Here is the input.
Amino acid sequence: MNLPTIALLATGGTIAGSATAATDTTGYVAAALGADALLAAVPAITTVARVRARQVYSIDSKDISSAHWLTLARAAQEALDDAAVAGVVITHGTDTLEETAVFLDRTLDCRHKPVVLTGAMRPATALSADGPMNLYDAVCAAAHPDSAGRGVLVCFNRLLLQGATVHKRHTSALDAFGPGEAGPAGHTGPVRYHAPAWQRPAPQALPRDAESLPRVDILHVGAGMPADLLEYAVQRGARGVILALPGNGSLPEPWHAPVARAVAAGVRVVRATRCGNGNVSAHHIDQQCGSTAAGPLTPAAARIALMLDLLADHC
Here is the structure.
């Protein structure tokens, strides 16, 4: 059988987690198992694709840094550039999966080959581990010809979600990830998409010598909060700040002057929203204070976008 070759890049996370008891779904050690063990748990994958496994690193995704993103992006692009590889699957912890998905969607040249991220909400040792099915579905998606040209995808709980807009919406449920306002891109079992692929822009090039990304902080702004945390972020060297604000990115009056001072000091300030969905539109306050609106981006996605913008400006 002439099966496609899929590159599997493993990074740790709950999907590779191990607990002492099969009924324990919270007190486990993340990133305890390697890529070969993940594949061994899903023998049906051999009927779908030939898988080349590589352990990029083994980490609990809460501890991922921008240096890890750069390492992963380079490993994924190397796999994509291999003529023998039809697609890439990345196993990842769920805590920061949405951030990694946004970063890779903006930096990988996956216009002709699919990249699919997946993970699990339960460790591999659990009685009802969800990782094996998620991994199987992700490989099916990466091997499917209709998956090309869709950017980075996230495969979770039989949904195919756009990496650019995916967000984690639940702390422990098996359907922890949501698609944003546009809805899911498709489903698995079998793989099917709801719309044709579209023409994607060229990715942002990453400097070969980049070891990290510029510091950008996210500040959650609650009712009555003073702006001293913004001032502290500027003092500590943040080059950008994302404000997770109420409503349509509404900036409280006491924050106007501190934001203007931060912008005058060369710090980029972006107004995003605490709401789960919705667009933050431009406002006259942006002209007054020098801030910008996040548009449809969540605070986490806006942070990634600004980090990459600042990196490009530095280059």
Remarks:
- The mean pLDDT is 96.
- Helices lie at 35-40, 66-80, 97-107, 131-143, 228-235, 256-264, 284-289, 299-314.
- Residues 299-314 form the longest helix (16 residues).
